[in-house]
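Researcher: Sequence recovery benchmark, item below. Answer with residues only.
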């Protein structure tokens, strides 16, 4: 008779082999394709960043090209509070005056540098690309938001050059225009970058399971339904620019956009390489 513990170990191994087998067609499908991965700022403070980066490194090893765009929400707010500045948001976008931009210029590149360093420690190769240094050109969104930019041009040449060498770009969502530095919501930046690079997929790693309607996770949303949830104020705060970024991406070059809980171990791999996936996917509909 097989010992229970031995049987359980065997079951686990069989289960793992099923997952690997299920991944094969996806690996083939996505090989040499670009995937933009936006990592929410909280990933750092909560310490789940290393797992996400490990997954990104694995994608890179498989010949899929991850491009990382990072946020900085909590760290920015912390530094603003330290400087006695009061964070203000309009429809989930941070109002950015000159003092806020000073904070962003300090905090955001530091986060990008930490990600790059961590990728190296985990055995991968990446390069930090601060958006305001010739990577992301913007135009002002509105007077009331101050120095908040919408991407008008992406230096795809520099990004593609890195991808060709197997280096993972880590893009900090700050923009430039007429000698000024602009804040770009990281989700908005990620979708513009994905479109400019003609990325196959865009995935937003955040601190919730996906879009929720009350307590319920919504596994799949067409553009129309997503807009309705924003109108009905079921989607609020930071989820508004995130959902709009998904809509923007799928209306253009991306086939699908995903919202995934980055605090779940290997959620990124599960989303990409399994039939069912996790989180919320937004499709054209
Ligand atoms: N319907 C909804 N479903 C899920 N989350 C929602 C919804 N409406 C609002 N939210 C909020 O949106 C938040 C995610 O956006 P948020 O901007 O805070 O994080 P992020 O974009 O991952 O990080 P960062 O802004 O630092 O890049 C969730 O933590 C949740 O509080
Ligand atoms: Mg956000």
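Model:
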């Amino acid at each position: 008779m097989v010992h229970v513990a031995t049987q359980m170990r065997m079951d686990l191994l069989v289960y793992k082999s099923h997952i690997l087998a299920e991944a094969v067609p996806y690996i083939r499908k996505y090989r040499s394709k670009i995937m933009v991965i936006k990592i929410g700022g909280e990933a750092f403070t909560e310490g789940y960043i290393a797992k996400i980066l490990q997954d990104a490194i694995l994608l890179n090893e498989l010949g899929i090209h991850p491009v990382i765009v990072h946020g900085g929400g909590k760290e920015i707010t912390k530094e603003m509070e330290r400087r006695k500045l009061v964070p203000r948001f309009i429809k989930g976008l941070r109002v950015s005056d000159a003092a806020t931009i000073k904070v962003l210029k300090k905090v955001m590149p530091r986060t990008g540098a930490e990600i790059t360093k961590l990728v190296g420690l985990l055995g991968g190769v990446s390069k930090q690309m601060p958006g305001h240094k010739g990577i992301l050109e913007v135009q002002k969104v509105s007077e009331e938001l101050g120095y908040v930019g919408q991407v008008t041009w992406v230096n795809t040449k520099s990004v593609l050059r890195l991808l060709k060498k197997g280096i993972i770009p880590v893009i900090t969502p700050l923009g430039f225009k007429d000698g000024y530095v602009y804040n770009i919501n990281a989700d908005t930046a990620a979708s513009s970058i994905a479109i400019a690079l003609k990325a196959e997929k865009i995935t937003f790693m955040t601190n919730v399971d996906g879009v929720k309607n009350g307590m319920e996770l919504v596994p799949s949303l067409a553009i129309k339904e997503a807009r309705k949830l924003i109108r009905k104020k079921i989607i609020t705060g930071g989820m508004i620019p995130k959902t709009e970024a998904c809509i923007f991406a799928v209306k253009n070059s991306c086939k699908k956009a995903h919202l995934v809980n980055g605090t779940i171990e290997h959620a990124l791999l599960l989303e990409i390489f399994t039939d069912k996936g996790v989180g919320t996917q937004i499709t054209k509909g």
